[in-house]
Specification:
Layout lengths: L14 E4 L3 E5 L9 E5 L11 H21 L3 E5 L18 E6 L4 H5 L4 H4 L5 H12 L1
Antiparallel strand pairs: 1-2, 2-3, 3-5, 4-5
GO molecular function: catalytic activity
InterPro entries: Histidine_triad_HIT, HIT-like, HIT-like_sf
Protein name: HIT domain-containing protein
């Protein structure tokens, strides 16, 4: 299996914490300073494949490190997980579920380069969309 998270070189990569089911590593390449990844040890590709004990440790670890980020060097912290099976695996996209912790500041570099455009992307839901998606997700 050609998975960089399953075959992580513990000597080469900076593992910050290792638990029974997950580990925390500095993201390389990083999106922002202090960008961390929380990675399940077991190879899975979607969060729905996580076992209960893996979910618990992953979420507990995410909260623990978000609090560390907030108390030590940043006033904000995004937690993200991307599921994009339509993209090929690369240095920027790995087919192994993982969560990103991104330290954030008001109008930081990430905001200046991409999130400033969010106001042009987000739109109010129409009544038809509300009905359509309510039926889709409830049914």
């Amino acid at each position: 299996m050609d998975c960089p998270f399953c075959n992580i070189d513990k000597e080469k990569n900076r593992i910050i914490k290792e638990g029974k089911y997950v580990y925390v590593v500095l993201s390389n390449p990083r999106l922002v300073d202090g960008h961390l990844l929380i990675v399940p040890k077991r190879h899975i590709e979607k969060p729905s494949e996580l076992k209960e004990e893996e979910k618990k440790e992953l979420l507990d670890t995410a909260i623990e490190f978000q609090e560390k980020i907030l108390s030590k060097f940043s006033s904000g912290c995004d937690i993200r997980q991307n599921c994009r099976p339509f993209q090929k695996q690369s240095q920027l996209k790995v087919n192994h579920v993982h969560f990103h912790l991104l330290p954030r500041e008001f109008k930081d570099e990430l905001y200046q380069k991409c999130q400033i455009f969010e106001t042009e992307i987000f739109r109010m839901l129409t009544e038809e969309e509300k009905e359509k998606f309510a039926k889709l997700f409830k049914g």
